[in-house]
Amino acid sequence: xxxxxxxxxxxxRLAVKFADSNDHAAADAASADAPNADPPVLVSDGGTxxxxxxxxxxxxLNPNPLTDLxxxxxxxxxxxxxxQMPGVSLTPADKVDxxxxxxxxxxxxxxxxxxxxxEGEREGIRRVARGGLDATVTSFARGVRSDIDRAxxxxxxxxxxxxxxSDKHVETKVGSSREEVxxxxxxxxxxxxxxxxxxxxxxxxxxxxxxxxxxxxxxxxLDAGADRVCYCDxxxxxxxxxxxxVVSRLADLGPTSLHTHxxxxxxxxxxxxxxxxxxxxxHGTVLGVGERAGNVALEEVAIALDRCYDVETIEVERLxxxxxxxxxxxxxxxxPNKAVCGANAFAHESGIHTDGTLKDGTMYEPYPPExxxxxxxxxxxxxxxxxxxxxxxxxxGVDVDEDELREVVSRVKELGDRGKRVTDxxxxxxxxxxxxxxxDRHVELxxxxxxSGGNLPTASVRLRVGDEERVASGTGSGPVDAGLEAxxxxxxxxxxxxxxxxxxxxxxxxxxxxxxxxxVVTVAVDLSRGDRSVSVSASDADITRASVVAMVDALDRLSxxxxxxxxxxxxxxxxxxxxxxxxxxx
Length: 586
Ligand SMILES: CC(C)C(=O)C(=O)O
Description:
With 586 residues, the chain is an alpha/beta fold. Helix content is 38%, strand content 17%. Residues 81, 162, 202, 204, 232, 234, 259, 261 line the site of 3-methyl-2-oxobutanoic acid.
């Protein structure tokens, strides 16, 4: 996989010889034999007899009709419903961290947890409530007074009071009757209001409730002083029509929120149906974490409202950062094709898409990646075309002529055909081979030992750095972490092209190639310094060794790239870079 930032590419692609030559005809002819290569030009730019467009470029980029949605508020329940996801458990510190990110993004209400759960949970809620946030901080409370008392103990601003709404919940789950539930709801709302709490009444399983009864129950809650009610599609069973039917009836009673789940894949659709039907607040979780198929993803709601309907909810530029933080604390991996925050949400590989994207960044994107705090990436694989490969090489400051480029493209495709990710290191190694160049490595791993038993995982590395050998050790949360610390320590006093301290590990990904405990693993890392980034992978039966080899190789490759200012193949301190050679896994 080759990762690049496209702005650099645009300014540096002229370094590629065929582009310099301006010989487009030759370039087109050369690409014609490759099915996924960059397409030939099919229409001319010229012509004066086109009709005058009636829509502006901006409206054409957003083809959606504006609706009469005005203000929509977001209630985040990552720290409560999201945390109910099997395997997810947040410490008080994690909760505070995520709450701060949510608050910085401008989320209106943060449901910090469920005060009845445990002492640790209450401590987390307490710390969020006392964190001086702008958001309204609430606790989930079941329909019992003691839950409201526990929420009060935590110092929250409000409660999300859940009461059973469907007969299944009223009769089978809580063994009660409709009348009794209405009475209890009224008492609890009055109790919470007497204690100055903001109150939202949630009718659990409301999408499967008898509508007349749901109206009676929610109406009673509002009459008792609740600030709002919430339509809950607890098991994600409703479609947009049912959502609109129920929500329009509730919204006639008072302010209405939406709480939708994604079991049928209707999470976001139902939010839009519910907003059109009169709701004004959306519950969601970051990344859609939550029970079963999860809740509606907050970031998807925010970006869709922003882009399609011009409705601003929270600061969308903070969405990616927020998603990464939640992924880190929950341990939930983000699928690469996830909207907004997936690794591929703004990545382009096929020759046709890459070529179009290099001509106009918005060609294959509904909105620019910067909108949500991200960057566009061009990735090489078996669908690569000449323009993408040429731009990637230009980004690495490597000049190729047309014949060399053709050969590099063909070898990149071969590698992709073998099911391999094509990293920057792969691309550079291929190019070096095609050009008959030898790489003079600046940093190389000579030896590694790591121990993971005991309390403190430790690793020692022996590196060759230029002409000298260096030995260093490090400790970390595990042997991989310790190995990387040891590498940093070995390079800490480096004054030349490699300064391990100023690099960022942007992503670290492990794949087991075979299934057993003796599996060979491939570790892929993306490393960056300033606006330079490089992707490298390494394979080994030992995960620590694969990780450290990949890291060292990435550091070495980055030292060749310099600081991104010059693009002339000089390293950060202006010395000549070494000649590129092979990747760690080839
Ligand atoms: C009870 C509520 C709000 C809930 O989590 C759900 O319906 O999924």
